[in-house]
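go over this chain:
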Amino acid sequence: MEINMADTTFMFLATVMVLLMTPALSLFYGGMVRAKNVLSTTMHSYAAIVVVVIQWILLGYSLSFGGDNSIIGDFSFAFLKNVGFAPADYAPTIPHQLFMMFQLAFAIITPAIISGSVAERMKFPAYLAFVLLWSTLVYDPIAHWVWGNGGWIREMGALDFAGGTVIHVSAGISALVAAIFVGKRTNKDSVRPHNIPMTMIGAGLLLFGWFGFNAGSALSMNGIAMNAFITTTVSGAAAGFSWLMCEWVLHKKPTALGLVSGIIAGLGSITQSAGYVSPFSALLIGFVGGILCFFAVTELKKRIGYDDALDAFGCHGVGGIWGGISAGIFATSTINPDITGGLVDGNAALLIAEIISILAVTVYSAIVSFVILKLISLVMPVRASEEEEEDGLDYSLHGETAYGSVSAAGLAVGSHDAVAIPASPAVSPKKQFGAEVVAMDEAVVVENHATATPGNKAHKTKKMTKVEILINESKFDHLKKALNGIGITGMTVVNVFGYGVQKGHTTYYRGVETDADLLPKVRVEVVISKVPLQQVIETARKALYTGNIGDGKIFVYDVENVIRVSTGEEGAQALAYNGDAELLRATS
């Protein structure tokens, strides 16, 4: 075995490209969560880097590629012993160390994919423990089954060119189990992505890295690598197109998020067979993969009822399963003479082997992932508390905020939203970063500037009152539910800033606690005539109160008159909507 410098240069570049994919994934995922969770979500990807690198160097690489056992590797490469510059059997024309680094990039991104299913609600310590245990007990054995010398799936004859089974099926199935185990997000139906351009940038970087991911799996700069480069491009484009068409036909509007989701689905679908199929087969694989993943994300998730927050199962799991089946159908020795083709070459045995490998990886990943999560839950909480989730994991778990202001995405609802939601119970007081619990009068301040006059006789209107509520963005959903419960429905909101030192609120910069002198707020304005003023005030205070200074402020003012422009109605009639419901409006 002799090192080829052209192959080495090619694989060095491919390795760097694949390593870029995990930061790219952090952007892809980060844009799809709410602004208050973007840091925690991106941290999950970067945390996977630091945990898996250490695990891989110490033990993971050896368990994956050491020895020739059928189930798991040995300790011959532990601590990178016997891993030097000289080539290994796995890649005879490049340094063994380079092959190890290329495989490390795969091992890093796989648990990072899973993090998308539990975004916005999983505790950070529990996630770190999960990544370590999952990499050791799930990824490493499966990698050895499929790619390692003597691995039983490899010996059976199943093919996995770049990790369709090892990465996408294992991560997708584990993501589904994790999503079900951790449970649904609070108010998940009102969650909207906060930064789609950020997601699209991440998708573009993922696409770039995927060329190294798939083409680099040839382990040499040859015709197989070039074919993988082409099929990867074709499949991603075909899936992006088919996903867009599904949106256009069924939802009447193609979306930017749908486009990039389709591309990712196509890339996952072709990963298993990129070096084995023709470009035309890749077109079919991607087109079907885009449709399957679209319905998994939009229909299957809804019907089963799980909360896979960022659709790790829908895109990667479903795409990976289809990718394995399609490899058994379309793989051909015409493209890759080193293999026995699939159904297109008259060989049904490959399709059977692929199905067996998919089933084995699915069952093993699901069972072991559940056991890992269960064991972790016995030692530490896996899910963030309701209060932490409301405040956002960025602030509640990490003491940081991503932006100087909050995005309105996910806050605004229709101006005539008349959904009847039961009133929320009072929130129990809690301490925040060591702050003392204070009384409700001090935490939620009320300033009443209204008079006791009965109304405007000139306009023959009943007394109307404006209640202006200034709150932290994280409390908006709780306030909305509470006001809905007393017949006040339909609102839009406006983002504002609270200036001056914010008592009771701290943030952290490089571990140093600092005062927060500028905090994003939400202002809601309510004009009432039938609902008693005191009921509105008490309902709002109970919804906002946590025992901390700065829970909110309530201002009360007289209103001379209200006119509905569309009908000309005045006073209480202008406020009325859907029976006795009051109209809420937001100030600008």
In short: The chain is about 50% helix and 10% strand. The chain has two domains: 5-389, 407-585. The two ends are 72 Å apart (CA to CA).
